[in-house]
Amino acid sequence: MAATYRALASVVMLIGFYVVALLQLAAVAALGVWLYGHTNGLVTGKLLLPLVVALGAVAVGLWRAIRTKNEPAPGLVLDEREAPQLWATVRELADAVGTRAPDEIRLVPEVNAAVGEQSRLLGLIGGRRTLYVGLPLLQAMRVDQLRSVLAHELGHYSGKHTRLGGVAYRGRLAIEGTIERIKPRNPIGLVFKGYAKLYLMVDNAASRRQELEADRASVQLAGHEAATSALRSLPALDAAWNFFTDRYVDSGWQAGLAPDDLFGGFGQLLNARREQIDKLQQDVPDREPSRWDTHPPIGIRIEAMAQLPAGAAFADDRPAHVLVSDVLDAGRRLQSLVLDLGNRQVLPWPEFTHAAIAAGMQRQADGIYRAAGRFTGSAEPGLTTVLDLVRAGRLGEFAEQFFSDATRREAAARFAGPMELLLDNAAVRAQRARWQLSWSGPAQFVGTDGEPLDLAEIAKLAVSAETLDEALVRLAELGVDPATATVVQGRATADNAGVIGAIGNVKVDGVQHDLLILDRGLILVGGPGKAGDGEKRLKNLLESTPVATLATRHQFLPYEELVSVNVTRQIPLKAELTLHGGRTVALQELYGSELLERHSRDNLLRVFERINED
To answer: Tell me, what DSSP letter sits at residue 322?
Structure first.
């Protein structure tokens, strides 16, 4: 019944949304008649146009929501031949909760499971059912824990949550689509935003009740221990997945590389760090419930589960992946479906790890080498450029830019850290060292014999003119020639840079541009177009073209090339940027400029502060 009430509430609330729109349309019409009687037609049109546009957005939002098709999410379809035990388990659980089994099971990359139905007529007529099972759950859970998760999801079917929930889903689409098309300062938009909050509050409350209803099936069919431990494990697995992608995948992905078996790697990490993950599961996230939650907090769900009667469930501590015939093959096939590799080089995990870390190390080394090139005037700077500064007694003078709070002597000594990075990079370039993959801890830097290689002591010798020769001898003994370590990227790029803001229609040296603010530099887009369309234009630009590509098509100004910034006015922003070599760039925000988001200017000012501090 709860699902029916939710669908009914969603329909009523959605109708109310358009009733509000009709009332506002009537008010606009009345205002138009009054204005026309007291002013002329031109004034009336100018005043009413924004309001009419806003009401037009309502019709567009509804039309698009009705036409939206509930297509299955991307994933690997598992037939009974590939997962006979999984299919048998799902059918058993579906029969137990009194619902029709799904028509297909899809393996997906998320730490989650879900159900969906390709319903029609705003979700009122049922259709093909899909059960989504996250591969990480198969890799990490026991069979009885996965049974609990699947029972919960099938419980949504038995409660008709998926089918009738389609009305609520399309209601969200209609309201969100309407609000997106109304400009922030439009008075009609304020009314719709208030109504949207009310709609979400009502719909989210119904969604939370449905989750508690579905938890009954988990306890009934899997028992208290399996149900609660599965629920506890989800935040820990989510944290493990994020750790895996952040520490093991992202750096290589950004360098144009990809592992040949992404999900197999996650399985290796789970096995190697089992104790750490088990400890995470002991800590249930403790937070207060919110009216905006679609799910109750885990702590509240576990407390509610403890009050529910359990059925005759049996413990099954087998790994959940036994329900699939070949989980490793399934993971590789899933990777081919859900990952767009582009032109990335695919490597086995050991080679991927080494290449990823080496690429990141080279990027850092290039930044130091470019600084040395600017300092010395060298066109092809490298490790020998830096070592020549050491021999000439000028390292402290050069290193001051990296350690602004140090004297020259202190800066030279502290440069041992960056020097170690440069020496590690030189050893890799000379093929005398590599980064060795470890699933239980950080990758190790090892020599050709596979033993750990630590160049910290040589780096300390290399920052002093008195001990430089000794450092060079020890490098030679390792087979490392400093001359082979040179700059690869002669100028900083926007590869893998993040966007922290944007301002439409600013003047750069007196000429109008759009300004993209990255965490590594500024992209100056010439010939931007008329003022008033800046926010929309910037969104389209960033959505249509990768940042790195935009930096090659337009003028890119890396922050590392700036010596100082003189801000003469903050709002609207006016500043003069001084580059190495003495060239200046005048930047002026106009009163008609538009911010991509409200913190864009503040983020840029913070960047300027850091440049001046350095």
So the answer is: G
Distance separating alpha carbons of residues 37 and 44, to the nearest angstrom? 9
In which element (H, E) is residue 266 found?
helix 262-272
**Which residues are 134's β-sheet partners?**
108
E strand or H helix at 108, and its extent? strand 104-108
Q: Specify the DSSP class assigned to residue 340.
A: -
For 164-202, the DSSP string reads: HHHHHHHHHHHHHHHHHTS-TT-HHHHHHHHHHHHHHHH
Tokens of 522: 């500024």
Whole-number Å distance between alpha carbons of 129 and 466: 75
Q: CB neighbours (10 Å) of residue 504?
A: 31
**Given strand 521-526, what is the order of strands in its sheet?**
555-558, 521-526, 511-518, 499-508, 584-595, 574-579, 562-569
Q: What is the pLDDT of residue 2?
A: 47
Distance of alpha carbon 168 from alpha carbon 570, whole angstroms:
45
Instruction: Return d(Cα 196, Cα 172) in angstroms, integer.
Output: 8
CA distances for 406 relative to 200, 239, 418, 613, angstroms: 55, 39, 15, 13
User: What is the tens place of the pLDDT at every residue in 524-580?
Assistant: 999 887 777 778 889 989 999 999 999 999 999 999 999 999 999 999 999 999 998
C-alpha Rg value of the chain to the nearest Å: 30
Provide the pLDDT confidence category of residue 182 given band limits of 50, 70 and 90.
Answer: low
Cβ neighbours of residue 572 under 8 Å, at least 6 residues apart?
588, 589, 590, 591, 593
Do 529 and 506 touch, CB atoms closer than 8 A?
Answer: no
Strand, helix or coil for residue 96: helix
Cβ-contact 147, 316 below 8 angstroms? yes
Edge to edge, the sheet with strand 76-78 lists 76-78, 104-108, 129-134, 113-117
Contact present, 256 and 128 (Cβ < 8 Å): no
Chain centre distance of CA 197: 25
* SS3 at position 332: helix
Read off the tokens for 513. Answer: 């541009």
Helices (H), 289-407: 298-306, 327-338, 349-376, 383-391, 395-399
Place of tokens 């088990």: 278
pTM: 0.81
